[in-house]
Amino acid sequence: YPGSHVGLIRNDGYIQLLWPSPESEQVLNKPQTGALMQTLISYPGMISGAYEGMSSIDNTVRLGAFSHLPNANMSAFVSVPKRLIMIHWWEHNYPILLSFLIYLGVISAIAFKLAVMERQHTHDLLAQSRKDPLTDLPNRIAIDEIITREVARNRRGEEHSAILYLDLDKFKDIN
Fold first, then answer.
1. pLDDT tens-place string over residues 62-120
2. What's the rounded Cα separation, in Å, for the pair 132 and 56?
C-alpha cells in the first residue's frame, strides 16, 4: 500500500535498509526514536511483535510488526499508516454496520408496532370487561366505578344524583 515501509533496523536504532528508499539519506544516518525503537527497547527479549505509534521516519502514526533476526543483531519490520488501516477498515466494514443499523431500525419498528397493538388490545379488553356482551350495557364492575365517581361528585356539591335499581325476575331464562 502507499505509505508502507519495509526494512531492517539495527539494535542500536539505525535503519540498515528501508523500502521504498527514503528521499533523504538522513533517515539512514541517524538513530531512530519512534514507536518501533521504543518497543524494541522496552521488550529486548521479544522475538516478534507488533507496535503502534509515531514514526520518526515520516512523523505519521503507524501500525507495524517486527521480527528479530537472531544472528544479525537487527529486526525486520513492516509498517503502514494507521489512517490507511482505518480507511480500509471502514471500506470493508461499512456494509456490515449499515446492515446492522437497518436491522436495528426494522426490529425497533416491529417492537413499536407490537407495543401499540398491545396497548390497543389491553384497552379493548378493559372496555369488554366493563360491558355485558349480550346487551352491551355496563356490568357490575362498570356500575361500581360509575357510582364511586357520582358519589364523589355529589360530595363536592357539583350535582345531585339518583339511583334506579331495576331487578327483572327470571331474566336469565329470557336470555
1. 999 999 998 888 999 999 999 988 888 888 899 999 999 999 999 999 999 999 999 99
2. 86
Write the single-letter amino acid at 26: Q
Give the separation between CA 169 and CA 56, rounded to whole angstroms: 103
Specify the range with the lowest mean pLDDT, choosing from 35-39, 67-71, 113-117, 169-173: 169-173
Q: Which residues contact 51 (CB under 8 A, 6 or more apart)?
A: 35, 36, 38, 39, 63, 64, 65, 66, 79
Cell numbers found for residue 88: 480500509
The closest alpha carbon to 65, from 126, 132, 9, belongs to 9
- For 4, 31, 107, the CA distances from 102, given in Å and listed in that order, are 36, 51, 9
Name the pTM for this structure. Answer: 0.54
| Bond from prior residue into 22 cis (ω within 30 degrees of 0) | no
From 77, 32, 69, select the one nearest 50 (Cα to Cα): 77
* Contact call for residues 38 and 109 (beta carbons, < 8 A): no
Scan for cell 519512534, then name that residue: 34
